[in-house]
């Protein structure tokens, strides 16, 4: 829990920036899906496909199908006991909030030991862990940040630290790992990234970036800033120094290490109680959609 309330600057919301034509598309999109999904969720998928109705519908239907096949509604009960060991060879985690109240997600990808990682866990388990992390961000961390800030918060700030990577990022195995992680976000959790700040980029990263960049959609590419080793001033314009780990030029030194602490407003018991109410409503919406599909199948039969 934060010791003092952080003053944050709200950003324009997705729904607040829609043109009249986009709003009409959203209304039509919602009606086509039975009216059982909230406007913001549908707006994320529409924006990801530049408000092309057919492409957004295909994307959303694929998302619903994937949720059912993957068992996303049960993912919060998934246990990942190897997390401490995983973080030792793949340092990452959420840590406090930026100047707009968004959760900060940090990966020290330059310290990734992929060989050790897959001695500890498997690709399948990592995918399930990623999905659980996205669901937690969507249903817990972002709502908690909005409550703490007192204004809408819809996305996150991601910091990727490539320090120490040397030629490591040239590995095909690392490419595959990054592609696996980015696919989940782009296909099933679109428009949740507000900004990505890549720091300590080595000279060779320009070669790796040419390979990685085409995997990202155009909107995501525009949200990414590449920085060298003198990034601290720009980073501290995005987040208060007290919320940035010391290893990245900030003032924070969490007792167990900032990437192990999971520090943020989502740990406040009062905020957790409010989020619990919201998550019940999310579950009810999922149940409504399931019932609607069942009724349609019965009609066909």
TrEMBL record:
- Classify the source by domain of life: Eukaryota
Q: Per the UniProt entry, what species is this protein from, by scientific name?
A: Blepharisma stoltei
Q: Report any Pfam family annotated for this entry.
A: CRAL_TRIO_N
- The name this protein carries in UniProt is CRAL-TRIO domain-containing protein
What Gene3D superfamilies does the record tag this protein with? CRAL-TRIO lipid binding domain, N-terminal domain of phosphatidylinositol transfer protein sec14p
Domain (CRAL-TRIO) spans 82-256
């Amino acid at each position: 829990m934060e010791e003092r309330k952080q003053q944050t600057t709200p950003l324009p919301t997705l729904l607040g920036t829609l043109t009249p034509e986009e709003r009409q598309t959203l209304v039509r999109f919602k009606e086509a899906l039975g009216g059982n999904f909230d406007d913001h969720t549908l707006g994320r998928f529409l924006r990801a496909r530049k408000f092309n109705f057919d492409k957004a519908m295909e994307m959303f239907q694929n998302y619903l199908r994937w949720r059912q096949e993957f068992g996303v509604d049960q993912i919060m009960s998934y246990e990942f006991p190897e997390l401490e060991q995983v973080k030792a060879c793949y340092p990452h985690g959420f840590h406090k909030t930026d100047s707009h109240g968004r959760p900060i997600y940090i990966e020290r990808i330059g310290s990734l030991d992929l060989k050790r990682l897959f001695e500890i866990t498997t690709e399948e388990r990592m995918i399930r862990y990623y999905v659980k992390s996205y669901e937690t961000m969507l249903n817990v961390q972002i709502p908690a940040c909005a409550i703490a800030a007192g204004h809408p918060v819809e996305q996150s700030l991601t910091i990727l630290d490539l320090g120490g990577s040397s030629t490591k990022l040239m590995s095909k195995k690392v490419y595959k790992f990054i592609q696996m992680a980015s696919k989940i976000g782009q296909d099933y959790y679109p428009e949740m990234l507000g900004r990505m700040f890549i720091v300590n980029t080595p000279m060779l990263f320009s070669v790796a970036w040419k390979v990685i960049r085409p995997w990202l959609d155009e909107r995501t590419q525009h949200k990414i800033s590449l920085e060298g080793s003198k990034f601290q001033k720009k980073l501290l314009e995005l987040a208060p120094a007290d919320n940035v780990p010391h290893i990245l030029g900030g003032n924070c030194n969490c007792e167990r290490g900032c990437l192990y602490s999971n520090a943020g407003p989502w740990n406040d018991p009062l905020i957790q109680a409010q989020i619990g109410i919201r998550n019940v409503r999310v579950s009810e919406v999922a149940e409504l959609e399931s019932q609607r599909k069942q009724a349609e199948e019965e009609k066909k039969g």
